[in-house]
Specification:
- The complex is a heterodimer of chains A (575) and B (173).
- Chain A is built from 23 helices and 20 strands.
- With 575 residues, chain A is an alpha/beta fold.
- Chain A has three domains: 183 residues, Rossmann fold; 162 residues, TPP-binding domain (Rossmann fold, 3-Layer(aba) Sandwich); 177 residues, Thiamin diphosphate (ThDP)-binding fold, Pyr/PP domains (Rossmann fold, 3-Layer(aba) Sandwich).
- In chain A, helix 1 runs parallel beside helix 7.
- The two termini of chain A are 47 Å apart.
- Chain B is of the alpha+beta class and 173 residues long.
- Chain B has two domains: 79 residues, Alpha-Beta Plaits (2-Layer Sandwich), CATH 3.30.70.260; 71 residues, Alpha-Beta Plaits, CATH 3.30.70.
- In chain B, the strands form two sheets. In chain B, strands 5, 6, 7, 8 and 9 form a five-stranded antiparallel beta sheet that branches. Chain B has a four-stranded antiparallel beta sheet with strand order 2-3-1-4, covered by helices on one side.
- In chain B, strand 6 and strand 7 form a beta hairpin.
- Classes of the chains: A alpha/beta (575), B alpha+beta (173).
- At the A-B interface, loops of A face helix 1, helix 2 and strand 4 of B.
- Bound molecules: thiamine diphosphate.
- The site of thiamine diphosphate has 20 residues of chain A, from helix 17, helix 19 and helix 21.
């Protein structure tokens, strides 16, 4: 463990019911919530809080752009399961975190975002650095607050953490006007959360569980679709137990990777646009689809008209609004995935007899696996990811940006363990991969953290190399460098008759020098034969590393379901 | 299909914004929204009239509303026995010789003339939507200069329980 990553301690906790300022209350409350790291960036409206951070020594990581701070908080939340905390100033500070908040919202990450705000006396006057952050973030937060009175602050913080972490997790924003943060009041944190309008259903309805148990017994071709909800509820073990009891094959969403071991014989791999042939055909042929903590995103379902045409659909989700939103469901189960899986396991239903189904699935697996052509002297991105998997023995936390490299990572890194995969799924946010790796390293100081990035996405938040430099954080940056906006180039090739509008980089920065400017060790790799050795060296190196891997430029991600097509219409399947 | 939905919500700033924003971004088709305080000053009641394609669309509206932390309770009351009222102000072109006629028209609707100008009169009518529409139809031939409608506000008839009765999280229930 890097000494700089040790848990912060020795913070003085004042006693209950003392009089103190708003910003002092905030820091006290964060300590009560066992927040051990804040990611943020100071500015005028939040200065009183930063002064408090200085005085109390609570650990704060200074990003170089607020977007870096919020994605780091997301990476932390994704890997630790604890709320990521981000503190920024009003106006531009707050608007710079909007993308990350939207990202956390759509991927259901527990987050508490604190934004400074101009003083209450000037709110609404277009004051210096004023932005209507509550208005801006209303549609992209699970809930948000503006504190009007310092006496309300403890209650609001408590509610914010409660809302962010319970039910379907999500980001909660607290907008804190400067005068409220300097006003004094009594700090009373030992109060119960009382939110009559917010009562998530955790325990599923027994009757629905019974219906599902019966449906499994009757099914000939059942499939489980495991989503990130399994990971959020910490139900990976429960899923494994249930699957081994019932012998139901498991397909995974992009965000659900790792919820079920990728190397298990009942794992079918990822479903959806760039999923495996087996997973997608299983969804097409199944007669009972059990979705657990997945929300039927269009990247998973393909054209809804062709989605699971023969299946009875069971949908387990903690968010009732997800059930029936995109797909009509015959067995709706509202509740926590862990509870639901426990109940299913305890019901000890008769497993279906589906030998034939499994034979069929195995045949698809054998005959139509993921594939790529080895080509003489160029580095294949797929092979690169496989090597990362081999060298880390699947033990690393892998974060990615968005694009082709993301899909290759999802395909070729076999996620065997939960909470080792950090990617921007729902929003598809470029710039996410690198800072989220920093947050992930804080969540798991002893784990190897590998950031697999595109050359374009990396350039959106590359300035956060400062954090690596400052703290000697051992994050390994692997650039899958194809000198283009690869995924955009692929779509232009396939759907826009090769008109490569603004997607190719004729000139690129010297990434190795860029790394060196931040005192980070950098390599450039072109020769596939050097790759393995270099990777070993990088992974064993004690500090941060950047590897600029020049991969085959015209590589496309396959197989693929083209827009508007169904699961049975995959292209680029192994011939 | 047209549905009438009532919701009780926390009476805090921005709640109306939250709800209308939710409708807009989810592409729900709303016809009207009314809002006002209830007998409990910390709670407001909203009445929506929405136009949805099918049961699934309706379920989504209700579930998404329910997801809001500030929404205490949501209920579709379309098929219940309800009291539903709308207020409309209608300014009609009315030369002096037509005023008697207009006033006679208004009477069976219990509409009243609340303002008289040189060339127009303004009527006020309350009632369910059909009644308001029927009156507007009758007035159209005279020429409507201005029309303002509130949208309906409604609740269930005659029940004793308040809509924000015992919270369901109570252990005693
Ligand atoms: C912020 C943002 N802007 C634009 C896009 C659209 N987009 C998706 S993938 C992609 C190209 C990514 O290129 P690169 O980071 O080099 O990764 P590659 O696909 O080459 O692996 C773009 C521009 C996006 N996802 N996010």
């Amino acid at each position: 463990m890097s000494p700089k990553l040790k848990k912060a301690d020795g913070r003085e906790l004042k006693t209950e019911n003392q009089e103190m300022t708003g910003s002092s209350m905030l820091i006290q409350a964060l300590a009560r919530e066992k927040v051990d790291v804040i990611f943020g960036y100071p500015g005028g409206a939040i200065l009183p809080t930063y002064d408090e951070i200085y005085r109390t020594g609570i650990r704060h990581i200074l990003a170089r752009h607020e977007q870096g701070a919020i994605h780091a908080a997301e990476g932390y939340a994704r890997v630790s399961g604890k709320p990521g905390v981000c503190v920024v100033t009003s106006g531009p500070g707050a608007t710079n975190v909007v993308t990350g908040i939207a990202d956390a919202m759509i991927d259901s990450l527990p987050m508490v975002v604190i934004t400074g705000q101009v003083a209450t006396s000037v709110i609404g006057t277009d004051a210096f650095q004023e932005a209507d952050v509550v208005g801006v973030t209303m549609p992209i937060t699970k809930h948000n607050f503006q504190v009007r009175d310092v006496e309300e602050l403890p209650r609001i913080i408590k509610e914010a953490f409660h809302i962010a972490t319970t039910g379907r997790p999500g980001p909660v924003l607290i907008d804190l006007p400067k005068d409220v943060s300097t006003a004094s009041g009594f700090f009373n944190y030992d109060q119960d959360v009382d939110l009559p309008g917010y009562q998530p259903t955790v325990t599923p309805n027994k009757h629905q569980i019974k219906k599902l148990v019966e449906a499994v017994t009757k099914a000939d071709k059942p499939v489980i679709l495991a989503g990130a909800g399994v990971l959020h509820s910490g139900a990976a073990k429960e899923l494994l137990d249930y699957v081994e009891q019932q012998k139901i094959p498991v397909s995974s969403t992009l965000l659900g990777l790792g919820a079920f071991p990728g190397n298990h014989e009942l794992s079918l791999g990822m479903a959806g646009m760039h999923g495996t042939y087996t997973s997608n055909m299983a969804l097409h042929e199944t007669d009972l689809l059990i979705s657990i903590g997945a929300r039927f995103d269009d990247r998973v379902t393909g054209n809804l008209k062709h989605f699971a045409p023969r299946a009875k659909i069971a949908h387990i989700d903690i968010d009732p609004a997800e059930i029936g939103k995109n797909i009509e469901t015959s067995i709706p189960v509202v509740g926590d995935a862990k509870e639901a899986l426990r109940m299913l396991f305890e019901a000890k239903g008769t497993p279906c007899d589906c030998t034939q189904w499994k034979e069929q699935l195995n045949e698809w697996k054998q005959e139509n696996p993921l594939w790529y052509k080895e080509e003489g002297n160029s580095l294949k991105p797929q092979r690169l990811i496989e090597m990362i998997y081999e060298e880390t023995k699947g033990e690393a936390v892998v974060t990615t940006d968005v694009g082709q490299h993301q899909m290759w990572a999802a395909q070729y890194y076999k996620f065997d363990k939960p909470n080792c995969w950090v990617t921007s799924g729902g929003l598809g946010t470029m710039g996410f991969g690198f800072p989220s790796a920093i947050g992930a390293q804080f969540a798991e100081p002893d784990k190897q953290v590998v950031a697999v990035l595109g050359d374009a996405g990396f350039q959106m938040t590359a300035q956060e190399m400062s954090i690596l430099q400052e703290l000697n954080l051992p994050v390994k940056i692997i650039l899958v460098n194809n000198a283009s906006l690869g995924m955009v180039r692929q779509w232009q090739q396939l759907f826009y008759e090769e008109r490569y509008s603004n997607s190719l980089f004729p000139i690129q920065p010297d990434f190795v020098k860029m790394a060196e400017a931040y005192n980070i060790k950098g390599w450039k790799i072109e020769d596939p034969n050097e790759m393995q050795g270099a990777l070993k060296e990088a992974l064993n190196y004690e500090g941060p590393v950047l590897m600029d891997c020049r991969v085959h430029k015209d590589e496309n991600v396959y197989p693929m379901i083209a827009p508007g097509k169904g699961h049975h219409e995959m292209e680029g399947v192994k011939p | 299909m047209k549905r009438t939905i009532i919701a009780t919500v926390n009476n805090t700033s921005g709640v109306m914004n939250r709800i209308t924003g939710l409708f807009a971004r989810r592409h729900f088709n709303i016809e009207s929204i009314t809002v006002g305080m209830t007998e409990n000053p910390s709670v407001s009641r909203m009445t929506f009239v929405v136009n949805v394609d099918d049961q699934r669309g309706l379920d989504q509206v209700i579930k998404q509303l329910n997801k809001q932390v500030d929404v205490l309770k949501v209920r579709d009351i379309t098929d219940d026995a309800i009291v539903a009222r709308e207020l409309a102000l209608i300014k009609v072109v009315a030369a002096p010789q037509h005023r008697g006629e207009i006033s006679a028209l208004a009477e069976p609707f219990r509409a009243s003339i609340v303002d008289v100008g040189r060339e127009s009169v303004t009527l006020q009518v309350t009632g369910d939507q059909q009644k308001v529409e029927a009156l507007i139809d009758l007035l159209k031939p005279y020429g409507i200069k201005e029309l303002a409608r509130t949208g309906i506000t409604a609740f269930k008839r005659g029940t004793k329980k308040s809509v924000f009765e015992s919270p369901k999280y109570s252990i005693i229930n």
